[in-house]
Design brief:
about 85% helix; mainly alpha; about 0% strand; single chain
Length: about 90
């Protein structure tokens, strides 16, 4: 019988590597979504969004969310600028 253990090991390694890329794409998509929502909130053009966020969170909570959202926006922009082929299709 043929030994397929080397094939299975390569397949496992490939799937693990693909999983890393898929998680990075998911992180990018989440970061870009938060960035876009933050921009819409700050622009004030979506009254329903502004009202929902203002009623759901205190000033302190909104400030903390804004701090984290800005970091995510920076990450999303960096990925778009410096790692576009990694997130392509994301």
């Amino acid at each position: 019988m043929a030994d397929f253990s080397a094939f299975r090991a390569r397949r496992t390694a490939f799937n693990t590597g693909a999983g890393v890329v898929e998680r990075m794409i998911a992180i990018y998509q989440g970061a870009a979504g938060v960035r876009d929502t933050l921009a819409a909130y700050q622009d004030g053009t979506d009254a329903d969004l502004v009202a929902a966020i203002n009623s759901a969170f205190t000033n302190a909570q909104r400030a903390e969310l804004a701090t984290v959202a800005q970091k995510l926006a920076t990450l999303a922009s960096d990925l778009e600028t410096n790692h576009a082929s990694l997130i392509a299709g994301g």
